[in-house]
Amino acid sequence: MSITLDAVREAAKCIEPYAHRTPVMTCAALDERAGRRVFFKCENFQKIGAFKFRGACNAVMKLADDVAARGVVTHSSGNHAQALALAARLRGIEAHIVMPSTASPVKRAAVEAYGGKVYACEPNETARRQRADELVAETGGTLISPFDHPHVIAGQGTATLELLDEVGGLDAIIAPIGGGGLMSGTCIAGRGMKPGVRLFGTEPTGADDAARSDQVVELELGHPAVVDREPVKLAVGRFTVGDQLGLVDAQDRGGQRRSTRNHQHAGKSQSQNADRVGTHRPSPLAAGFGAGEVLPTAYHTVSPEPG
């Protein structure tokens, strides 16, 4: 299924009654560190505190009434779980959420507060997918992947739609890659609205699934990694490779430039910098300090704007 700019625009109309239009913020200290003007699309102000609500809401609201009546199913350790539970509540349907036993108790409580039915599983990708498949069979519900779903990807792309509508003169857009849903939506909306914009994806060092999956035949699903001593699972899916991630400019792996996608590592030092800046700067932008570290390396060919 091809996901187009029109699909992202349709998603924006679909979620408009439910999702927040989040602010775009700036910070002079981060501009100085990055050596250029940096604009932050603050999705931490989105419902459930993350961009995930956009995609989940679009996917749930796009379901036909008879299909929606059977509910929705997903597997997630936190943000997508909350997003789907809230979207389902707004639609008036059930949400069956598989969460690993190691998931944050706070996030599990939030899912339940939104009305989601939580099913615990072992903390590995196989167990998550297997339990979700069982629930689909048991309930007749529709599986809504955290990232590998066309309506989820289109929904995530609405953040870039809003960003470019507000700040039209951007030279580059940086977005994180976990499963690839946000980055895919960013690619579709970014290149669709501004063909010359450069697109960069970022991942933590040691959890670089997308970087290792620069060709479909080398795709790594659910590769385990440890980031700052915490085990994480990242995965790239069939909808989030090829046409979508293939739009990312040029990959930089281990300092070797490639001609397909651009990937940058944001390691522990960037996380520590974000923690430090958070004590001196507005907390909504603290996480962006990692981008301030990546930009001078990834996008060194562009001079800072005057003033």
Description:
The protein is an alpha/beta fold. The protein has 2 domains: 5-52 and 149-298, 3-Layer(aba) Sandwich (Rossmann fold); 64-143, 3-Layer(aba) Sandwich (Rossmann fold), CATH 3.40.50.1100. 40% of the residues lie in helices and 16% in strands. It contains 12 helices and 13 strands. A hairpin with a 2-residue loop joins strand 11 and strand 12. Helix 1 (5-15) packs across helix 3 (52-61). The longest helix is centred in the middle third of the chain and has 17 residues, at 150-166. The chain is globular, with a radius of gyration of 19 Å. It starts with a helix and ends in a 9-residue tail after the last helix. Residues 215-235, 250-280 and 298-307 have low confidence and may be disordered.
Please give a quick description of this structure.
By secondary structure, the chain is α/β, with parallel strands linked by helices.
Approximate shape:
globular
**Compute the gyration radius: what is it?**
19 Å
- Class of the largest domain in CATH? Alpha Beta
- The tally of structural domains comes to 2
Distance between the termini: 45 Å
Which structural class matches the secondary elements? Answer: alpha/beta
Please give the count of helices: 12
- How many beta-strand runs? 13
> For the report, how would you describe the main beta sheet?
4 strands, parallel
The strands making up the biggest β-sheet line up spatially as 5-4-3-6
Which stretches of 5+ consecutive residues score pLDDT under 50? 215-235, 250-280, 298-307
Mean pLDDT: 78
